[in-house]
DNA sequence: CCTACCGATCGGTAGG
DNA sequence: CCTACCGATCGGTAGG
């Protein structure tokens, strides 16, 4: 059975996956050798092939898991409330929280996707496009309901997505903000960017597309 | 003197630089071989070394030029007006415009910087940090003057930077927006995100940190 | 899990 | 500008 440092085959596989996450994020997919990966885990390179079929499998598994978790958090945010403003806030918090908590996954999904072979590349690209479309649809609905004021829901969606995407780029050297501070403040910023019209104002009978009193920076 | 397809040595050097820009952006620094570069230019790989010292030189030159142009556009925006709101708008427009017009340079600066060797890596990293600091200082000044309302100038700065950084990521397949539309709309969004207080409201004697009437989406 | 090793490809040089 | 070629390193396999 298993030796001492190794542990079970399952633990090994998780250790390899974690090493891939760290090294692919730090050095890139092409910049990471199987020998680097093996050394990180404490074995020799050929032994890795007892746990995986090819280097490419590691990239695919890491990217698949990352996309699944991001999309699950997004769906949960959308299901958390019937109110479009609250949905937007929670979706932004989930987006920011994911990017802050999973910098390695984000770096890989945003930077190494081109090294993902077909058919996985096309499949993951469609998931990403679907994510962006969901944001555009959410904002479009908010505009239709008179709660958001923005000239282009698609551009606003890309702006909000970009805010999250950049987090790991600028926070490589452990910044001064916690994950929750980031989520909270960026949630507010998303509402500011969309010029949110408070429900009370709408109910008060003002025309929705008229400039309305601004929310204070924090609504909690 | 020069043959026909080649042209002058200077034209060759520019052609090589342009091929590096395209290929480093598309396939990454490590994913681009000297043979790929040579083929793109129409010569054999060893002949490249009549025009450059090493592959690394190409990366350094591309990154240096990109940073210089971005920073020059940023300084021009800051010098365009004494008004902090106008400075912010123009800085955002310059930021967005650069990222929309130079997707290859942006992809390389944001994705391949880790392959830049010292001392260039440290030097360029400092330029980037200086750029981010300039944004934070601009927003801090706007808050101090009562023109912006935001709980953290640093986080707001990172958000605005992120909006630009993501543009080439999501616009790989030629989107439906022009460079000028992007700059214009994102300029507005930046002002919304910062809860801009119009100069007229300030002059009217309201307390600067009190929630004020919101600007309409476009101020032009 | 290891050692030994393979064919391919890499950046770059020699020499003209 | 070319052909010929070098040493190093790559992902992966053989065989136990």
Oligomer: homodimer
Give the number of helices of chain A: 10
Percentage of residues in strands of chain A = under 5%
Biggest sheet statistics of chain A: none
Unreliable stretches of chain A, pLDDT < 50, 5 or more residues?
205-220
Radius of gyration of chain A: 21 Å
- Report how far apart the termini of chain A are: 55 Å
Topology:
2 copies of one chain form a homodimer.
Chain A (H helix, E strand, L loop, with lengths): L8 H19 L6 H8 L13 H24 L5 H18 L1 H9 L8 H25 L8 H13 L1 H4 L8 H15 L5 H5 L17
Helix pairs in contact in A: 1-2, 1-3, 1-5, 3-4, 3-5, 3-6, 4-6, 4-7, 4-9, 6-7
The structure holds a DNA duplex (16 and 16 nucleotides).
Task: Give a written overview of the molecule.
The structure is a homodimer of 220-residue chains. Chain A is elongated. Chain A has helices at 9-27, 34-41, 55-78, 84-101, 103-111, 120-144, 153-165, 167-170, 179-193, 199-203. Chain A is an all-alpha fold and 220 residues long. Residues 205-220 of chain A have low confidence and may be disordered. Chain A contains ten helices and no strands. Chain A is 64% helix and 0% strand. At the A-B interface, helix 7, helix 8 and helix 9 of A face helix 7 and helix 8 of B. Chain B binds a DNA duplex (16 and 16 nucleotides) through loops.
Short description:
The structure is a homodimer of 220-residue chains. In chain A, 64% of the residues lie in helices and 0% in strands.
Which descriptors would you attach to this protein?
homodimer; 220 residues; mainly alpha; 64% helix; 0% strand; DNA-binding
